[in-house]
Design a protein that fits this description.
Blueprint (H helix, E strand, L loop, with lengths): L1 E5 L1 H8 L6 H11 L4 E6 H15 L1 H13 L2 E4 L3 H13 L4 H16 L3 E5 L3 H10 L6
Parallel strand pairs: 1-2, 1-4, 2-3
Length: about 140
């Protein structure tokens, strides 16, 4: 099984037709929708996705985000002490902002708790680079 961890930028791009990454986000979402794929987003990155829709449409915007996550089977991973410590360690070892550190930490966490390949979907080269440097050799 493949585990796809979404950074907020991909989900934001998917939701907004006006986003510069919209077409690429749609393509990435299509690839992630294979039946043998588990899809996740950290609660912190979920919050990032909510901000724009909440600003423009209030509660209806938040429902749109939640509907998308439900429709595509994207699980929101809660922040517990283990994930928080891992995100803190990522933040210390990189120049990433804390929300980006959570995306990387969630992917590393998934590597340690799944039996499949883990893919971090992001448009941010710094996030992708940090994950490539910090990922667990051999996936576990």
């Amino acid at each position: 099984m493949v585990v796809v961890v979404f950074d907020a930028d991909v989900l934001i791009g998917f939701l907004s037709r006006d986003d510069a990454h919209h077409a690429a986000a749609v393509d990435r979402m299509r690839r992630a929708l294979r039946s043998d794929t588990q899809r996740v987003v950290s609660a912190v990155n979920y919050t990032e996705v909510l901000i724009g829709p909440l600003r423009t449409a209030g509660g209806a915007g938040a429902r749109t985000v939640d509907t998308m996550l439900t429709r595509f089977g994207i699980e929101t991973i809660p922040v517990d002490m283990t994930l928080a410590k891992r995100a803190g360690a990522v933040r210390v070892r990189t120049t990433l902002k804390l929300p980006d550190a959570y995306a990387v930490a969630t992917a590393v966490h998934a590597e340690q708790h799944s039996n499949g390949d883990v893919r971090l979907e992001t448009f941010d080269e710094k996030v992708a680079h940090a994950y490539s440097q910090l990922r667990v050799p051999g996936g576990k």
